[in-house]
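Record format v2
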Amino acid sequence: VQLVESGGGLVKPGGSLRLSCAASGFTFSDYYMSWIRQAPGKGLECLSYINGKGTNIYYAESVKGRFTISRDNAKNSLHLHMNSLRAEDTAVYYCARDSGGAYAFDYWGQGTLVTASS
Amino acid sequence: QSALTQPASVSGSPGQSITISCTGTSSDVGFYNYVSWYQQHPGKAPKLMIYEVRNRPSGVSNRFSGSKSGNTASLTISGLQAEDEADYYCSSYTTSSSLYVFGTGSKVTVL
């Protein structure tokens, strides 16, 4: 199992960014996937998750209305579209696989850093 | 959704046992047996150590064990080793948002 995030970088407050996560080594469409972030020196925050078919989606209140999670099962990829970015969105963003029934994240990517700063 | 409460730091000498607590509410830790624990070394991604309160994934040392009583879950590390020095986070599924909530994190120091 491998998860590789990309798309992070420096963006001005109010700007947009699209993160991607390339998955391999498992049947991607069989698993819920999540985006989890960690601000510098801070703890973990689950932002959003999506079921295997893309029909059930949940968001944390902190990003609801600004961030959109999506997946492309044909390309084994997960995405996070981030709009109206704020300074407090600065963090390392991880994609993670939900273990499937155990309600835990059994595989994580290496993370991609998003910095929202002028 | 408020984070689960963990002690900021826990320490112990090599060979000793330590326990990290994780206190939530009746909407998360107390409601479900879906408590998990993660180990994170500096600059690295978190690693799953315990799921469903007390189950260890394949490859995780049996020195790590989990339990739960009411709204509080616990992670015990026995036979503490230098490599156990890391940050540890608990997590639980929650009814209040249908998402996962993480703990505030505990830094484990091996003296």
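The interface with chain A takes residues 1, 3, 32, 34, 36, 38, 45-48, 51-52, 55, 57, 89, 91, 93, 97-105 of chain B (CB under 8 Å).
DSSP finds no helices and nine strands in chain B.
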